[in-house]
Amino acid sequence: MTVLVDAINHRKPSGTTDSTVLGPFHMVESPHRELGANISLDHNGEPCVFAGQARSSDGTPLPGARVDVWQANGAGYYDVQQPDVQPERNLRGLFVADDRGPFWLRTVVPRYYPIPDDGPVGQLLAATDRHPNRPAHIHLIAEADGHAPLTTHVFVEGSPYLDSDTVFGVKRSLIRPVVVVDDPLRAEHYGVANPFRLLEFDVILDPGPGGTRP
Q: Could you give phi then psi for residue 8, rounded to 5 degrees?
């Protein structure tokens, strides 16, 4: 039902990034972090750089765009699910794109995970013969002055459950590979050892009605 509401209320013009569901683990006040910061405080997972470009639908870069990210760790858990295990605000961060629109951060490759399946949710899944799993993904909320905010995910190519996401949130346009990059100059730019894993995902925002004001 949430996906249906998203589809009805967030129709996107051609050329902009598709939206998808918010999910239950977003934190309203994400910690502000500097570009390039490492949001993996427990180091549970394979190290990875997550990078992209914020642009308007006409291709114009969006310097100062705000990109809020959060994700599960390499074991498939969010910080709020393991308050006695993970550091507070682990794998979360609010980043501001630089003066040309790029943003980048260090993290880990997320893992697929099951949604809580007790109570009515579990009964519904059992009745429809469905599993409770979501494919690996990173959540984003992107905002820029004069543009409509975007809530979306980037899904990890090759993750289990891409074709059977229990909340039907996967859109093919949101799937990206994690690649191994052997480039000392890029590694130096991102502040990581070479070679390194890289997940790239641009966010293209709609300047139409509903945009935030400067």
A: -75, -40
